[in-house]
Amino acid sequence: MKHKKYQILEIYWLDSLHSSGWQKESEAQLSKEKAIHKSVGYFLREDEQSILVIQSYQPNAEEIMVDGVMEIPKVAILKVKRYGS
To answer: Pairing relation of β-strands 50-54 and 8-15?
Structure first.
């Protein structure tokens, strides 16, 4: 899927779950409710494995500055909504 730079994306993605502390192997269970997150950001770039979105950018700087960089692995992405052109 081709996205335009700085296009607003709403990404639904599946996160890993973790429990700590010793427990019997037979008692280790899969979670009934998966950790699904929704993140919204400006598209920056992607490669074969990940998509990079940012929270903010400063377009009028001599060199564009970005903040709130988030990399989401594509294998975790459930759905992407695009906003704007």
So the answer is: unpaired
Burial (CB < 10 A; 0-12, 13-18, 19+), residue 53, is buried
User: Locate tokens 């709403």: which residue?
Assistant: 10
* Residue 55 to residue 72: CA distance in whole angstroms: 13
φ and ψ of 78, to 5 deg: -95, -40
What does pTM read for this prediction? Answer: 0.84
Residues in the chain: 85
Residue that is written with structure tokens 């269970």 in the block: 29
Q: What are phi and psi of 55, to 5 degrees?
A: -80, -40
At residue 17, does pLDDT exceed 70? yes
**Most confident of the ranges 23-32, 39-48, 57-66:** 39-48
CA–CA gap between residue 48 and residue 19 (Å, rounded): 30
pLDDT average, residue stretch 5-25: 93
